[in-house]
Design brief:
This protein is an alpha+beta fold. Helices cover 18% and strands 34% of the residues. It folds into 2 domains: 1-37; 45-152, Immunoglobulin-like, CATH 2.60.40.420. The strands form 2 sheets. The chain has a 5-stranded mixed beta sheet with strand order 3-9-8-5-6, with no helix packed on it. A 4-stranded mixed beta sheet has the order 2-1-4-7, with no helix packed on it. Strand 5 and strand 6 (107-112) form a beta hairpin. The model has no long low-confidence stretch (mean pLDDT 82).
Length: 163
């Protein structure tokens, strides 16, 4: 014989189903940034870089505990951006203390502690090449922790070689 559910039991089952279905959807929307208003101006380009001392690598890949030892991340040596872009850099360290700098902009050095994320902002006002690097001696591979932002202008503008 099948017992009929009471109103309290139905409410309890619906509550559990709502939590099991709604919470992952809510977390996904929050992670995508659709629930929070961005503090940056419209058109801001967000670039995430992770520093890995083993191999001296700046990478766009997400390097965390479970994949730190298993895979070798792809080195990012050149990132193309457009003149006039507002850039937000999200810098993460996968292993040891790193320090990020773009010397020509007098941006940094900014410490990036292991396991933490730090944000920096700058405007790409002129065309040319911006070298970024790790300022902190972090490993024997430290000299390899460098890369370049290639700031591209419009076709009609004359491009500078360096800032």
């Amino acid at each position: 014989m099948i017992k009929k559910m009471t109103a309290k039991e139905i409410a309890g089952v619906l509550g559990v189903v709502l939590v099991l279905v709604g919470l992952p959807l809510l977390l996904r929307a929050w992670q995508a940034g659709t629930l929070l208003e961005t503090p940056y101006p419209p058109g801001t380009r967000i670039i995430t870089l992770t520093a890995v001392a083993d191999g001296g690598i700046w990478t766009k890949e997400d390097v965390v505990g479970h994949n730190y030892w298993r895979s070798k991340p792809t080195r990012v040596s050149k990132i193309e951006i457009n003149q006039g872009d507002h850039i937000v850099l999200r810098l993460h360290s996968a292993d040891v203390l790193h320090s990020f700098a773009i010397p020509v902009l007098r941006l940094g050095p900014v410490d990036v502690p292991a396991g933490h994320t730090v944000e920096l902002e700058f405007d790409a006002d002129r065309t040319g090449v911006l070298t970024f690097l790790c300022w902190q001696m972090c490993s024997p591979e430290h000299p390899k922790l460098r890369g370049h932002f290639l700031v591209k202008g419009s076709e009609s503008e004359e491009e500078d070689d360096e800032w």
